[in-house]
Amino acid sequence: MAAASLGCRPWGSLLGLLGLVAAAAAAWDLTSLHCHFGAFCECDFQPDFQGLECDLAQHLAGQHLAKALVVKALKAFVQDPAPTKPLVLSLHGWTGTGKSYVSSLLAHYLFRGGLHSPHVHHFSPVIHFPHASHLERYKKELKSWVQGNLTACSRSLFLFDEMDKLAPGLMEVLRPFLGSSWVVFGTNYRKAIFIFISNTGGEQINQVALEAWRSRRDREEIRLQELELVISQAVLDNPHHGFWHSGIMEEHLLDVLVPFLPLQRHHVRHCVLNELAQLGLEPREEVIQAVLDSTTFFPEKEQLFSSNGCKTVASRIAFFL
Q: Is 4 within a domain?
């Protein structure tokens, strides 16, 4: 089914979308094209919740919790004319379950320029913070970057990818920006959105999903309360996570922990169908089955969850066409 049939904005290939994420990560542009010195400036912030919900419903497979939590948190935040703190989301789950895809959708449906908006800032440890020995310089630069961009536009989105690979200590410079103070370093920051992405907690989420399956519980019956504590503990126990000893978890500065469940065979099939539709191709059962047969599933006995989620679907389809 084509995206247009549900009224969704056409996207193109999911692989192409993730390519845009990588391109945006490499570009740090301090220049605002749409506003100047705007403590209350909305810049190119134009939320489209109908488009976001449509895209999530059609393309994000197997993530009832993530869909509900992200949309609910965003709506409440954006509709509040005077929030007391920024919105801080932390996305957790196994590789290929949709974390980067969701963050890309948020940029696309919140800002007119999407990932290319001067008010969307995407940070990658490999690109922006590659050397642990340069930690103090990175801390100064990150603090200055966030402060400067929030001065330019209070409606800014900051995406931090691969939190598992960040040097411990870097994130502590963000702590003053994430709380409920009214003014930080002379900037208006309460309308900003911070999104942190990591695989930490993925194993714990997988275990909860596996136990639910073994108990013959519906996947959709899994609730946030079952996952929140184990994810938090996994982060606090991980010395390689960017939140390690940053005070961000300890001071409860995260508004929502968003769990991404492991994907089963029918979810991967859904991803294959979506990718074929985005390529303008009719569903071909031999291609779908070839992709599924080439996908590794775990645990060894049950063969229940995809080891890479939907991460390699686009490349595998190209191989079997």
A: no
CATH of the domain at 60: 3.40.50.300
Reported as a single tens digit per residue, the pLDDT across 95-154 is 999 999 999 999 999 999 999 999 999 999 999 999 989 999 999 999 999 999 998 999
| pLDDT at residue 321, rounded to an integer | 87
- Residue 8 in any domain: the answer is no
Q: Confirm or deny that 98 is annotated as ligand binding.
A: yes
The answer to whether the annotation marks 312 as part of a ligand binding site is no
Query: Does residue 24 register a pLDDT over 80?
Result: no
* CB neighbourhood size of 312 (10 A): 21
Q: What is the pTM of this model?
A: 0.87
Residue 5 among known ligand-binding residues: no
Any binding-site annotation on 99? yes
In a domain, 17, yes or no: no
- Say yes or no: 69 and 161 in one domain: yes
Q: What is the pLDDT of residues 297-321, one digit of tens each?
A: 999 999 999 999 999 999 999 999 8
Q: Is residue 187 annotated as involved in ligand binding?
A: no
Average pLDDT over residues 206-225: 97
Residues 81 and 129 in one domain: yes
Instruction: Give the DSSP letter of residue 170.
Output: G
**Pair of tokens at residue 255:** 């508004």
Specify the 3-state DSSP secondary structure of 44: coil
Which of 276, 309, 236 has the alpha carbon at shortest distance from 66? 309
Residue 296 marked as a ligand binder: no
Rounded to 5°, the CA angle 247-251-252 comes to 120
Per DSSP (E only), the strands in 138-237 are 157-160, 193-198
> Is residue 158 domain-shared with residue 200, that is, in the same domain?
yes
Kind plus residue range of the DSSP H or E element containing 89: strand 87-93
**93 assigned binding-site residue:** yes
Phi then psi for residue 188, to 5 deg, are: -90, 120
94 is in an annotated binding site: yes
Structural domain of 243: 49-260
